[in-house]
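User: Run a structure prediction on this.
Assistant: Running it now.
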Amino acid sequence: MITIVNNSHNGSNGDEMSHIGRKLYHLCGGVGLLSLYYILGRNRALAFYGIFFFAVLGLDIIRLTIPAVNRFIFSRFKSFIRSNEAHKLTGTAPYILGIGLSLYFFSSEVATAAICFLAFGDVAATTIGERYGKTKIGAKSLEGSAAFLVAALGAGLLISFLGIQLSLWVLVFGALVAAGVELLPLPVNDNLVIPIVSGGFMELALRIVK
C-alpha cells in the first residue's frame, strides 16, 4: 500500500475510522492468512490462497464492470477500501497473491518473515507517513519508510521469539530490503512485490553463506 504524505490531523471522525479499519484489515488479513498455512498445512493452504485470490480478483472485476455493484461495495465496505480504488483494482488480490507465492517459492521461515514485514511494516509506514511524513520521496516519505523498517524489525524479533529459526542478520537484511522496496515508486502493487523481493533476497543470502 502507498504511504500517503499528509501532514493534516484535522480529518473527520469518519475518515479516521476508515483509516483504522484499513490498517486493521491489512494487519489482521496478513497474519490471518499466514496462520492458515500452519493450521491447514502447505498444500491445503496454497489451494485456499489460489481460490481466494481468484474469487477476490473476480469480485473486483465485477465491481469495476458494473457501477451499481461498485457503489454497493463502497457504501458497505468503505472502511476497507481507499477512495482512490474506486475505479481500479484494490490491493487485496495482490496481497493474497504475494502471500501465496512467498509461501510457495520460499522456505516457510523466510516466507513467514517476509509476510510479517509486509503486514506490520506497511501499516506502520502508512500510519506515520500520513501523520508525520514531511520528508517527501515521491508520493511517500522518509519518516514512513523509517517506521516500516522499525516495525519490520520488531516483527522479525517477534517471530524469532515464537520459534521461527532465522539468523538475526538475515532478518535485518530482509527488513532493510523490504523497507527499500516499499519506498520505491514501483508500477506493481507493493503488496505483491514486498514479500516476494524481500523473501527472495533472504533465500539468496542463506544459499550464499552455506
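The chain has one domain: 13-209.
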